[in-house]
Specification:
By secondary structure, the chain is of the alpha+beta class. Helices cover 24% and strands 21% of the residues.
């Protein structure tokens, strides 16, 4: 027997254990007690073949991105119909390179969401009757307290429809929308959607909440969009009612399917709201900072949104169809930012490659009974007023009835040549011509007319007519009672800050005064470099017709504050 044993060949080294989903295994170890599983053998919902293919794709992207010092990628793929996790890649696992921190599960990590919460704000405002899909949102230089948001491309549209602001991911309109909706109300909405990482009061985040000023986990982010998609899918099944279980977290253990709850008449979002939001997210004509959309060919409609955090630390892409949800995060687990880590350039290509692995599906069914035909002003996107000149009929959520009537169409009084505005104090009423005119506020008009060639500015007021403040002058920056910081230059002298005004007459000359002292004049582009001492000042602008604009601003004494 001993001789036979000696004759047996020595077995080789054991093969390494496969690491196909190591982060899910660690998660299971952490949550096994909470899941209430007593069996020694557990079956997950992971699609084995899909997991292997996704691991392969992630490794390919990791090789590419690591050349730029970007070391970590995470992916979560969900079955929308059931809520089951189909693929769980918490990181591109590199155990031989511990410095890459690939052991960190980025699906559970708290990270800045960038712009990925914008569709939820859009949906909340539709749902609560604040806006319609095409409502014009201001996109002008903005200062709210000490907060001055900027668009990614540093440009301004003046005004832009809400759905296009979402598809272009513009920051200033998003902040304007949140200012209108109130960040406290939006914070409460996110808490109800189970964003578990919002552990500070709403005032801690403020308006920056919509631009990545909080932290979220991929799990919570995907859960919120999954709930919306499941709810819309169940429109017919539940005969227009809602099941709160639709917003339950995804599950990765086959025995852990969520329990059905009693049907309700309302939920976080109305079916019509969700449908309108997904349509805005599906918009493929994505100019501006998401102008690379053309590289993403897809054989199916996908509602998707990207996000980029401050300092290029996090790149996000989340997309969904009635069948599948794919969420991708790209960045460094240690928080190091790198050039090029943007949602559109780093995360979106991964997401669309993963969608190509999945079966195609049809688009979401239109919830016809949860939408209402409404007459809309084509130019403003508001409910049409009696004097709106171009009206269309659109399907909108029923709460659209609460929205305001178009504020931008005004009845103006013109001379018989229709080239001057007049009043009854200077012109015969019988000769007047009355026309409805689309008139934006001066600061919005200043930028809007350059992006919209068909916009017609108001004719000037007749020189023979005396009018009260006609609003032809408006300050773009700074606004009334603003605090202005003027930096100290490298030579030790106080620098200058650019003040910006708008005038309806592009040929008007504007004379600038600070504390009753003339400091200069402008024509066409009304921008002037200002050097004022610390303290409160009175700015006065006067045009050649005597139109005046007076407002107060304060130059901060940064040296004393420091």
């Amino acid at each position: 027997t001993a001789q036979l044993a000696k004759a047996e060949p020595i077995p080789g080294y054991p093969l390494p254990l496969p690491h196909y989903a190591p982060h899910l295994l660690n998660r299971y170890k952490d949550e096994v007690k909470k899941l209430g599983i007593e069996n020694s053998k557990t079956t997950t919902t992971i699609d084995y073949d899909l997991q292997l293919k996704i691991n392969q794709i992630i490794n390919q992207y990791h090789l590419k991105y690591s050349a730029n010092g970007v070391n970590n990628i995470a992916v979560l793929v969900l079955n929308v119909k059931t809520g089951a996790v189909m693929s769980y890649v918490g990181n591109c696992y590199q155990p031989s390179n511990p410095e890459m921190e690939s052991h960190v599960d980025m699906i559970r990590a708290q990270r800045s969401p960038g712009s990925t919460l914008k569709p939820l704000l859009y949906a909340a405002m539709l749902n609560d009757g604040f806006i319609l899909p095409k409502t014009l949102i201001p996109d002008v230089p903005t200062q709210i307290g000490g907060y001055s948001p900027l668009n990614f491309d540093l440009g301004y549209d003046g005004a832009i429809p809400a759905d296009r602001a979402l598809s272009r991911s513009l920051n200033i309109p998003a902040v304007k929308m949140l200012q209108q909706y109130k960040y406290q109300r939006f914070y409460d909405k996110l808490k109800k959607l189970n964003f578990t990482s919002l552990n500070k009061p709403a005032d801690h985040y403020g308006l920056s909440l919509i631009l990545g000023g909080s932290e979220v986990t991929m799990w919570d982010l995907a859960s919120a969009y999954l709930g919306m998609a499941k709810s819309l899918n169940h429109f017919n099944t539940y005969q227009g009612k809602y099941n709160d279980a639709d917003y339950s977290s995804p599950f990765y253990v086959k025995a852990a399917k969520p329990i059905e709850e009693d049907l309700q008449n309302s939920s976080h979002f109305d079916h019509g709201t969700i449908w309108a939001t997904f349509n805005a997210m599906e918009e493929v004509m994505r100019p501006g900072d998401e102008g690379l959309w053309q590289q993403f060919s897809s054989s199916q409609k996908v509602a998707w949104k990207t996000g980029t955090s401050f300092g290029f630390r996090d790149a996000w892409a989340i997309g969904l169809t009635p069948e599948h949800l794919v969420c991708v995060w790209v960045g460094n687990a240690d928080g190091e930012g790198r050039p090029g880590i943007t949602g559109i350039e780093a995360a979106a290509p991964v997401m669309f490659d993963l969608f190509r692995l999945l079966p195609t599906s049809k688009w979401f069914q239109t919830p016809t009974t949860k939408l209402k035909k409404m007459v809309i002003c084509k130019q403003s996107g508001y409910k049409a007023s009696t004097i709106c000149t171009d009206k269309i009929v659109a399907l909108v959520p029923p709460t659209g009835e609460k929205t305001a009537v178009c504020p931008y169409h005004k009845l103006v009084h013109l001379n018989d040549a229709e080239n001057l505005q007049v009043t009854n104090q200077c012109y015969s009423v019988s000769k007047m011509k009355h026309k409805s005119w689309f008139v934006l506020p001066t600061s919005m008009e200043y930028y809007y007319k350059y992006k919209n060639a068909d916009y017609r500015t108001l004719p000037p007021m007749s020189p023979d007519c005396i009018s009260d403040n006609t609003g032809v002058l408006e300050m773009i920056y700074p606004k009334q009672n603003a605090f202005v910081y003027i930096p100290i230059e490298i030579d030790g002298n106080r620098g200058k800050v650019i003040f910006n005004a708008a005038h309806r007459n592009q040929n008007a000359t504007v004379y600038w005064h600070i504390d009753d002292e003339f400091i200069g004049s402008t024509k066409g582009q009304h921008q002037l470099a200002i050097n004022a001492k610390p303290g409160k000042h009175v700015l006065t602008l006067v045009d050649e017709n005597g139109e005046r604009l007076v407002q107060v601003f304060t130059v901060m004494n940064k040296e004393k504050e420091d």
